[in-house]
Amino acid sequence: MLLVDKLNKGKLPEKPDKGESAPAPDLSSLVVKPQNIAARIPNVDAIKRTIHERLISALGQNSDTVSSDVIQRRITELTDEYCEEAKLKLTKHDRAELAELILHDVLGLGPLESLLEDPEVSEIMVNGPKTIFTERRGRIAQSDWSSRTNASCARSSIGSSPGLVGGSTSPRPWSTPAFPTAPG
């Protein structure tokens, strides 16, 4: 049963005039907004790249010494400026989410940050730029993140910590042979 049906179940229908039948409820006004920002904003990767480039040029040589708070404020300002220039009609929530994605790309692990922040995710398995699995409540499933258009972000995020895999502190654990070879 749909939520609309459950809500309308408790309401009495309006009585139609004589000779008219009751009109069917119009459900076309009920729109489900996609969860994925890439589905809501066209060309989100190009927008992120443009704002990121503007951030780099705005910070200039000081990029290494600027605090994360200043970077966050500047990203929010640049996102608002870009949306006004490009005449993008985004809600405050979408602008804030776009700015947060850019912040994650600049200061964190990019799109993986949302998975790291999710308290239900107990493990993240990256099998490539487009194939990511998560474990939630003991069940492993392919993440919906893998269907997004952030393959380039994934490559840069995953490669941003060379030698560190899955948060391990030992450099390049894959370079150690699994089976010892005989001398010779």
Provide a compact summary of the structure:
The protein contains seven helices and three strands. The protein is mainly alpha-helical and 184 residues long.
What does this protein look like?
- The chain has 184 residues and is mainly α.
- Among the domains are: 37-107, no CATH class; 112-159, no CATH class.
- The chain is built from seven helices and three strands; from the N terminus they run ααααααβββα.
- It has helices at residues 3-9, 37-40, 44-59, 68-85, 92-107, 112-117, 151-158, and strands at residues 121-126, 132-136, 139-142.
- It has a three-stranded antiparallel sheet.
- β1 (121-126) and β2 (132-136) form a beta hairpin.
- α3 (44-59) crosses α4 (68-85), α3 (44-59) crosses α5 and α4 packs across α5.
- The longest helix is centred in the middle third of the chain and has 18 residues, at 68-85.
- The chain is flat.
- The N and C termini lie far apart (71 Å).
- Mean pLDDT is 74; it is low at 146-182.
SSE blueprint:
Layout: H1 3-9, H2 37-40, H3 44-59, H4 68-85, H5 92-107, H6 112-117, E1 121-126, E2 132-136, E3 139-142, H7 151-158
Radius of gyration based on Cα positions: 24 Å
The averaged pLDDT comes out at 74
Characterize the overall form: flat
- The secondary-structure class comes to mainly alpha
**Strand percent estimate:** 5-15%
Sheet having the most strands: 3 strands, antiparallel
Helix content: 40-55%
User: What is the number of strand segments?
Assistant: 3
Distance between the termini: 71 Å
Lateral arrangement of strands in the main beta sheet: 1-2-3
Order of helices and strands: HHHHHHEEEH
Question: What oligomeric arrangement do these chains adopt?
Answer: single chain
Number of helices: 7
Low-confidence stretches: 146-182
